[in-house]
Amino acid sequence: MSLIPCFFSTRRSNVFDPLSLDIWDPFERCPFLNTVAHLPSSARETTAIADARVDWKETPEAHVFKVDVPGLKKEEVKVEVEDGRVLQISGERSRELQEDKNEKWHRVERSKGRFLRRFRLPENAKLGEVKAAMEDGVLTVTVPKEEVKKPAVKAIDISA
């Protein structure tokens, strides 16, 4: 068994980005270090939704976050701004499995569980005007930016 795959994750987190609070764990996907890997498959909880993918772009007017949350309703997702200019996006999907004596499950691959993503917002963010909308399984959070005021330049006459 090679150890090399354990040091690379599929997450797109940048440990050098001061605005991202995601922490890269080099041992995150190592099967011999993960105690859950030794459990039978029926006892494992699928956590694919825990890696909710987020795109963050900055436009001249706002910071726009797009989060993939397929199958979730807006009531199952929470968007908050905490002290310290931290945007927190969280939610939970519960399993829909309900056993019926006439039914037999052949495969269960859809994920369940919680997700939590946190982002430190820049100083120019208008925290009181954050808006969120959900459409087709994509949550869009818009954080307007304050206008950057250019310093007034006053010409000074030079006397002789």
TrEMBL record:
Name of the featured protein: Class I heat shock protein
Family that this chain belongs to: Belongs to the small heat shock protein (HSP20) family.
Domain of life: Eukaryota
Residues spanning the signal sequence: none
InterPro entries assigned: A-crystallin/Hsp20_dom, HSP20-like_chaperone, Small_HSP
Keyword line: Cytoplasm, Stress response
Record's GO cellular component terms: cytoplasm
